[in-house]
Specification:
Blueprint (H helix, E strand, L loop, with lengths): L15 E4 L6 E4 L3 H12 L4 H16 L3 H30 L8 E7 L1 E5 L2 E17 L4 E6 L6 E2 L4 E5 L2 H29 L5 H26 L2 E3 L4 E3 L9 E2 L4 E18 L11 E5 L8 E12 L5 E9 L10 E7 L3 E7 L4 E3 L2 E8 L2 E13 L2 E6 L6 E5 L8 E8 L11 E2 L3
Parallel strand pairs: 3-23, 5-24
Antiparallel strand pairs: 1-2, 3-22, 4-17, 5-12, 5-16, 6-8, 6-11, 7-10, 8-9, 10-12, 12-15, 13-14, 13-16, 14-15, 17-21, 18-19, 19-20, 20-21, 20-23
Helix pairs in contact: 1-2, 1-3, 2-3, 4-5
Length: 431
Amino acid sequence: MTRSSKFVTPTPMPMTFRLSLFSGSMKLPVMKTNARSQLTRAAAIPMGAATRRLAFALASRIAMARTRQLAAALLALALLCGALTGCSEPAAQNNNRSAPGAGGPVGVVTAAANTQPLGIDIEAIGTAVANESVEITSKTSNIITAVRFKEGQLVKRGQILVNLDDAQAQADLAVAEAALAESQNQFKRSRNLFSTQALSQSELDQIEATHKANQARVIAAKARLSDQVIRAPFDGRTGFRLVSVGSLVNPGTIITTLDDSSLIKLDFTVPQIYFFALHDGLTIDAMTAGLPNRVFQGKVTTLGSRIDTVSRSIMVRAEIPNKDGILRPGMFMTVKLRTEALPALLIPEQALVPEQGQMFVYVVEEGIAAKKPITIGRRRPGEVEVVTGLKNADRVIVEGTQKVRDRGKVYEVSEAPAPVAGAAPAAAAQS
């Protein structure tokens, strides 16, 4: 009798059992005792929700597997996944529970408030102005007959710059002098006649008045003649020549400019908050982009009598010697004023905590961080002056302010390094 080679698929038994893989119950087909025990051991391994779903899916495949070898392989894979996931999830939870700062003291870096001499270097922007400056013009309407200066020439006070046509003025002077001579002779004769009572007092007074009027006319004629010669009002340097010989000039017509730049006046503005530090004689250093690597020293000579109501700043004028004439009027210059050093309570700028337009700091007292409002004043690189709110030797938090809460526990990790000695103070001023 020949054995049939046809493979007969065994029919699974209808009996079922429960496997607690989820919070609910899932039914699976009955398996042999060996497979059931392995699946039970897999369910006992701690695993997450995702792993449980994977294990259930694998168990379902196991139940429907046609061979014992396939079932054993799938069960081994389920055991391996469950073991790996179950071990990693508790470790992650333990790491989260052991994270620093969960309810314990916060590590911070602190620095002590200390009193040091603090000077202010006020920076401003100014404009150079000549010591004396004028536009040369004519007082009368006339024609230029001669130009006696060169552009950019240094001239002395009283030196002739331009001659105008003076023919009419000289003629007027001659007429006035002739009338004066006649009236003077008549006045002498009238006095002799008055002494002999041949002339009344009223007639003598009238002749005398005429004589004085003629004297005034001569003076006026000489003045008009003098106006036909334009002279330099002070020592200085001429600018560009804006007229030529034969030009008709009128009152107000600019012929040239004249500047006395042997001394430069520097005008600039300083915010009123620095008014307390300003006084006559304060030393300044000025620089300009047109002359790099050159520093010009001068002194404050005048403070404005008013504070500008718009910018809330005060006008300041300083004088800078300019014997070589290298500085020119109108130059744009940067100014630095160095004030006298005064005692100030300083803290690092990093300690400031701005909130809603007000400044705060955290002060460490016996392991507790106290949030205190302060008023700040002058500054220098890395440090700021505390006007009110702190006292000398108070320890403030420099690093870690974002992790700290008011009245929270802290511990000092280290002390903040001191600012570099000799750092130049700075305070910018808007012009």
